[in-house]
Structure formats: C-alpha cells, structure tokens
Design brief:
alpha/beta; five-stranded parallel sheet; globular
C-alpha cells in the first residue's frame, strides 16, 4: 500500500478541524491538526505536509498571514484557504495571498477530499 501524503488541517474551531480531519483520514490521508497558525507553522517545518487546509479567520495569525509566512520560508506545501465569510474569501484573492486555492465554506467534505486528491496529484 502506498503511503499517502500528510495533510494538515488548521482551524481555531476544534470541532470543524476534527470533522475535516476525520473525513480525510477515512479517505486514506495521514492527517495532522492544528488549532492556530503558530502550531501549524511548526508542524509545517517539522513534517512538511503536502497540503494545508486552513481557515482564514483565526486569532493572532490569520490564514492569509500563515500562507505568506510559509511562502516566505520557501515551503513547497500547497495551501487551501477557506472561510465562511465572503469578504474574507475576496480579500484573500485580492491580496494574492499565495494560496493554491481559496474556497468558501461550508464546503461538502466529499468535494474537499476530491479537491485535495487533485492537489496531491498535481506535480510540484
């Protein structure tokens, strides 16, 4: 059996984080979780996940800043930003956050898993 890439789920809402993580885990991904951007950055440095799925709106460091910090460090990780707030989604797109994608939530978990599958199958 082929080892699946690490996927990091970042959300300051623990139940949202757990729901996404459990679903992706059942789909065969090795899922890591963080409830804040500082923890996520540490995990990204030590585990180098292939994909990060992060909420945009988080205290202290938001998802846009997380993406910029990871990009500045040269991380090859593909970051998918999510928000239930249309203005936040628009802001992430307008600011050219460096995210691989910015999506509006709630996103159906099946669709999110399919999107992650496409991201991990994209070279480089």
């Amino acid at each position: 059996m082929t080892s699946r890439p690490d996927v990091l789920v970042v959300d300051d809402d623990p139940s949202q984080c757990l729901e996404i993580a459990e679903y992706l885990n059942r789909r065969g991904f090795n899922v890591l979780e963080a409830n804040d951007a500082t923890s996520a950055l540490h995990i990204m440095e030590t585990r180098m996940p292939r994909v990060v799925i992060s909420d945009i709106s988080m205290p202290e460091i938001n998802g846009i800043s997380l993406t910029r910090k990871a990009t500045a460090k040269g991380s090859p990780t593909k970051i998918i930003l999510m928000s239930g707030n249309s203005d936040m989604v628009r802001e992430a797109n307008v600011q050219h956050s460096g995210a691989f994608a910015v999506i509006h939530k709630p996103v159906p978990l099946r669709m999110l898993a399919s999107f992650v599958e496409r991201v991990v199958s994209t070279p480089g």
